Amino acid sequence: MKINSAATGDMFTFISSQTQEQPLASHSGRVLCRYAYGRAMETLLQGENGQDFVGVQTYGDVCNFVLCDGVSMSYQGDFAARFLGNTLLDWLDHTRDWSSAGFTEFITSITESASAQLRRLAPPGGVPSLLREVLEDKQRMGSQSMYICGRIELPISRKKQGRLWMAWQGDSRLRFWKDGLEVSEHFDDTFRTNERWSTLTGPVGGKPHVYQTRLDYGMPMRLQLYTDGLADLDPIHQVLPDELIQVLLDAPHTEGLQDDAAFLELQWS
Q1: Cα end-to-end distance, the chain, whole Å
Q2: Fewer Cβ in 10 A, N or C end of the chain?
């Protein structure tokens, strides 16, 4: 399995592959990361790319993360998830403008580059004419993905206030615990299936949702992000052991995942 990952001291990177599964794994640093990736059984049997994407980078007191769910009804939804995921990780590491307007401007500005790359994925000449017309119609609609991205700047002993910044569009799950108590109601009514990012227009269905909060030194916190393939996690509030999360990824009760699944959990104090 080809995974772009590295761990040196407090530095760690994981980028999911859309062609292979990633069983649940973890990395321990100032931020404890648990991550996994799985394709739907139908996708796996057909040897196709997964539509989801998950990535995380940690170094020192900083953690950048992204989770994307490509829209399968759009053209090459896997491309949108992969392009947007990689682009957002780079933006999180370099931007100095954390405003809602600045973020909206950025994800709108990258459509030209995304569209240019998407055109290179045009259907080959050997595709039957009728199927080619269908694919070309989809291509004109662009490639789309839902997303969640964010940055954790941890408080330290000499600087007792840190920051959590996040932005999202779509209906992937974003759950947040402070000192063991889930406070995800901050995000109520912001996860909408009609919202996403498009290679043609940028934000679709409304503007990105942006959330920012102070992080206090010594306060245990946990973020959990996952796509709809792991919807069985929805009613579960406690921290699950690795083996139980892996059971959900293996999905033996349905002979494999019914939808692609990307999972990321981050804990710190």
Answers
A1: 32
A2: N
